[in-house]
Amino acid sequence: MSTGKVILGLIAGGCIGAIAGILLAPDSGNATRQKIVDHTSDLKSLLSDWATDFVDSLTSADDSMITDQRAYAPEMKLNTMG
């Protein structure tokens, strides 16, 4: 299972749970709206953390590929000349 599918599943599950919570909430309108604001803020923070981790992993992979290419460059140069 890919990371993208897992993240999408978590977001969808969170949205469904939030909607169910709102519809079944015994609180007043003001309290429910405050809960929505709080949960939205939490979700925004979570998504921001995931995005940062994803960008960091891409940067790490890119750095690794550059290092690998530099390691093989002299060998590739010799193979094309010979």
| Main sheet makeup | none
| Range of helix content | over 70%
Q: Supply the number of structural domains.
A: 1
Number of strands: 0
Gross morphology: rod-shaped
Unreliable stretches covering 5 or more consecutive residues: none
> How would you state the average pLDDT, rounded?
78
Order of helices and strands: HH
Describe this structure in words.
The chain is mainly α and 82 residues long. It has one domain. The chain is built from two helices and no strands. The protein is rod-shaped and about 75 Å long.
Overview in brief:
This protein has helices at residues 3-23, 29-81.
Any chance you could write out the topology, listing elements then pairs?
Layout: H1 3-23, H2 29-81
Keywords:
mainly alpha, 2 helices, rod-shaped, 0% strand, 82 residues, 90% helix
